[in-house]
Amino acid sequence: MRARLREQRTDLRDVLAVRAARRHLDRLDRLDRRGPRGRPRTGDTAAVLHLYYADVWPALVPSLERLAAAGVDLYVTLPRQHAHLAPEVEAALPGTRCVTVPNRGRDVLPFLVVAEHLADRGYVAALKIHAKKSLHFGAGDVWRDQMIEQLVPTDPAILAELVEVLHRPDTGVIGPRGSYFALSTYWAGNADTVRRLVEPAVTPEALSRLDDPRELGFFAGTMFWTRLDAIRPLLRQDTLGFVREPTPKDGTLAHALERAMTVLPELLGRRQYDCDGTVIAPRAVRADPLPQWYRDATLAAKAEEADKAAKARRNRDRAPGTDPA
Fold first, then answer.
1. How many structural domains are present in the chain?
2. Domain that includes residue 189, residue range
3. d(C-alpha 80, C-alpha 152), whole Å
4. Is the pLDDT score of 123 beyond 80?
5. Rg, the chain, Cα only
């Protein structure tokens, strides 16, 4: 009973926090309209960073500085336990808009809250990045750094070209090269939810393409650039649809949205691109096989997990009073 009451209190707190986040974003807009506030809105393109792992912040600053120099407005979402970091973030990058959002769906719900606000304010495109670690995966830091380097090129000309591509009405998503997976990857646990998410926005003929998930793909890792009109039907989700932490490794609303935010633009006929940090290229909707680096990292993570479990069993067997048989 007590556990259930705690869960209900957490749910209520998170619902109220999302409402407060939306009000805070509106308040920031009103302040900007009244006069300069650090760096007021500069254009119609924004970047949204979810900062769950605060220790990653210093490594992210150079990429955010490049975005700001390119005229991209910066938004940083902070979970409740890191809300105190807002002044530090705003001091490092003047004009950054910080907002506290519950870590439901990990980085997904925070992005949706800000992205809906951006779409309502006439922004055309947004970058979604986060302080990813993927502790269950074993190579999360490397994958995060690679994706961000690809999505925020060091060459200002390439970054400007990327933003220009996003302003083409037929563009859907631009993702990091090497992270586009076949939709059939872990599809069984996500199929019904993905279908429910995209069905209201597409024709029956387009929806039928989900019947063969090998013919579609998605940018895994949930980092990408997108035109907001291409994912607009996905942006308002029920806070309580996102499970509380700790979350399962797959099969949640967040995992379905990870797929749907690429798949919906595909079903709408938008063009997909990928970028390696130097070249932006159209990519075929049909995915390549799982990258070798991903398979290797997954196997390594499973081996490490099995090793830890074996050590734990040995320690239990050696404990005083334990029957080794």
1. 1
2. 2-290
3. 27
4. yes
5. 21
